[in-house]
Amino acid sequence: MTDQTFVLPDVGEGLTEAEIVQWRVAPGDTVAVNDVIVEIETAKSLVELPSPYSGTVGELLASEGATVEVGSPIITIGSADATPPAPAAPTTVPEPSDPGGAVLVGYGTGGTVSSRRRKPAERPVAASVGVVAKPPIRKLARDLGVDLSAVTPSGTAGEVTRDDVVKHAEQASVFRNIETPAWGDVREETIEVSAPAVPAPVASAPAPAAQAADAREESIPVRGVRKATANAMTSSAYSAPHVSVWVDVDASRTMELVKRLKASPDFADVKISPLLIMARAVIWALRRTPMINAAWVDTDAGAQISVRHYVNLGIAAATPRGLLVPNIKDAQGMNTRELAKALEHLTLTAREGKTSLADQSGGTFTITNIGVFGVDAGTPIINPGEAGIIALGAIRQKPWVVDGEVRPRWVTTVSGSFDHRVVDGDGISRFIADVASVLEEPALLLD
Length: 447
What we know:
Elements: E1 2-7, E2 17-23, E3 30-31, E4 36-41, E5 46-50, E6 55-60, E7 67-69, E8 73-79, H1 135-144, H2 162-174, H3 212-216, H4 224-239, E9 242-250, H5 252-263, H6 274-288, E10 294-299, E11 302-307, E12 313-319, E13 322-324, E14 327-328, H7 336-351, H8 357-360, E15 365-368, E16 388-392, E17 396-402, E18 405-419, H9 425-440
Parallel strand pairs: 12-15, 15-16
Antiparallel strand pairs: 1-8, 2-4, 2-7, 3-6, 4-5, 6-8, 9-18, 10-11, 12-13, 12-14, 16-18, 17-18
């Protein structure tokens, strides 16, 4: 038997390193070509690596949590010259909805990649044993920190669906501050930022005096998505002169439209929210003020402004792995239903950690929906390569003057930051006013 060494490949994202998140195999396991052997995290996404060899796993050369450079050996696999037929063993048929299992270019053969999960004894037992849910739904629940046993299933066979998990996670985030937790005995608590994780329980008693100094502070390696986000935000904040504006908006008609769309049979299988109307409003307003959709570009011949006549609409997504900004390509050509489906797909893919580099590249303008966290307004940092970002605040019922009378209306705040090198104050003001106009009267989209 000869050992073959598998090195960390370039997964097609142009990145130089990745973190070993989880080994799917252990020494002594038998693997076939295209069996998933390890899950890695790059600065952009989670990637499952299939094995290019068949044989017996020898040594795992990188531990979970380690950051490995591209080209470094990570595993050895023994390949027998004459491999006897393997005994029949139960196989797991991947569910059609499983988002994982893409074959990397240059590794393995075509077809579906099966995912080798650890033996039950090697994996932590979830608190949701007995709940009917497909493997990808269970993974989504783990990533979002959702206990499946607490989720009300809506599937026809009593199973928990993807929407059930997402809705439960959203409700948990909205109501997270209703009960104020008691102060613990530990001064600080650390959450691992390099991979999805659940905060460790707070210690019930203070550390001994000899360990007190160590418990007061802790260093966290900055890597993966957090490192990429920090570099991008620092570069943007200190290279583009940001100017921020905001306006309060009566969004009552937007809320009425959302309610009607939810009741429409044409949108029965699509998630509808005010973000959909916001996206339509932004696309409409970008068409009227194209410079908002431009970008400042430094070249050897001097600076220039690149104006894009298409909209790759970015949506800032808070995920278990950190902030991601995937974008919807050519959103300007989509109707309302198509845009709703694209938003839903983008959001679910981001939360599952399956967003590709291509989906995060080439954006022209970004929306951040800070309202889902109960925040009214903010001054967001522009995504690099763009000239602006707009934030949709929480939509609340407030007193509002209508025809000289104070009435309860659904009110929100639209705020945004813009690159003042590219756009002047009048263009910024027109754009924000246009977005506000559509939220106040969605019928403007019919022009």
